[in-house]
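Deliverable D4.2, example record:
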Amino acid sequence: MAIKEIPVYLFVGFLESGKTKFIQETLEDPQFDSGDKTLLLVCEEGEEEYDPGRFAFGGVQLEVLEGKAELNPAHLEALARKCGAGRVVLEYNGMWLMQDLAEALPPSWTIYQCIATADGTTFQRYFDNMRQLMLDKLARSELVVINRAEAVDTDEQRMAIHRAVRQASRRCDIAYEYADGRVAYDEIPDPLPFDLAAPVIEIADEDFGIWYMDCNEDPNKYAGKTVRFTAQVCQTPRAGKDAFVPGRFAMTCCVQDIQFVGFPCRYTEAKRLAERSWVTLTAKVNVKFHPLYGGAGPVLTAVQVEPGTPPRDDVVTFS
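Output generated by the structure prediction step:
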């Protein structure tokens, strides 16, 4: 018997960023009524409290996690079973990593939507001082809502927020909410720094991070296209037979989170390549199943592999 999937509506952001207000308004909207019983799961309590009397529908059970120890599959499953929940609205603790949540979700729970909230009066300060935690949330969000937008109403301030969000994701939309209820959307264009229509897409050394992120987020855009870039060789059995992983060391926010990123690449002479050597690779991109992804993703097939010159900056960023 198939396990019934439980959709999770996830709200992330730091304390006092407006998560509770956003969720309260969502539950006051009759259009959000799916007919299912709802588990409202709160991982941190702020100054603002929920008012169930204003919810547009019944069947909402509020549960508060008293600490991170309660963030585990057995406990979460028990809470859902207790109220017969068919869906979950989750207010996540901004100081907890998203990987912690991924490991804690019961097998039947699936993140259906992720929305981040932030306060315009504190966004830049938090980003400067807790960048890794913010990027961790933004990277997985479809939308970030900036409350108290009056505090970031200049072009310079909006561009700073745009760049901050783009370090985490090129697909996360940005909305600015004003005290009077008005909402404005970020419309700053994000042109790619390379020509997708070229016979061979040339990826400059400094643009590897942008290409890597864009190709991961929208691989079908590159299906059948040929790319050329300089990368380091990673020899790993996980790449598969006659294959290696060309990539770069990348930094999201600080030196502590530097990691190697790349794509599996089929090449009959892969074993001849020295580990950590630099190559300039011309390859065709296909989207297919690969064990590294546990599903479909970008898989390269080498057309030409030549010795490469190490870039001036060997660590890339995603902006």
